[in-house]
Every structure is written in structure tokens, then in C-alpha cells.
Amino acid sequence: xxxxxxxxxxxxxxAMVAALATGIASAPANDTAPDHxxxxxxxxxxxxxxxxxxxxxxxxxxxxxARSYGFVKAPDGAWHVLPNCRR
Length: 87
Description:
Layout: H1 2-25, E1 36-37, E2 41-42, H2 57-60, H3 63-68, E3 71-73, E4 79-81
Antiparallel strand pairs: 1-2, 3-4
């Protein structure tokens, strides 16, 4: 009987760990700042280093907002930092 009880405890513990891990993985990112997206992290003005514009539609989806960060979209669709951009 002891082995059966231990097996049930292990199964319950495993299910609880899996449920907790799923909850943590699906928790929303901190998006209280306007330069954060759920999947993209922070965008630093005048720097495109490590930034995927597709993950920041609030910034790169609006040309005026992108320009306020120092970015401009070229005719070929590539994003560039404006010359003389200052942080």
C-alpha cells in the first residue's frame, strides 16, 4: 500500500509542477511602459540593436511614433536610425 500511495503523491506533485510552469510561461510581460510589447522587450531611442520591428507594432506601425524614437523606414522597407539622432 505504501508504494501505491507514493505513486499517487508523485503524480499529483508532477501535475502541480506542470500546471505552475504553464501558468508562469503564459504570464503576460510587463507592458506598462509604451516602449514595451509582450514579446519584444524595450526599444531604446536611436538604437535598433537587437530590435525586431515586427514585435513592436505600437512604435513601428505608426510613422510619427517611430520618428519620435529616431527611426525612419526606407523605401525598401528597412528601418534606419535618423542621422544625428540623440538619446
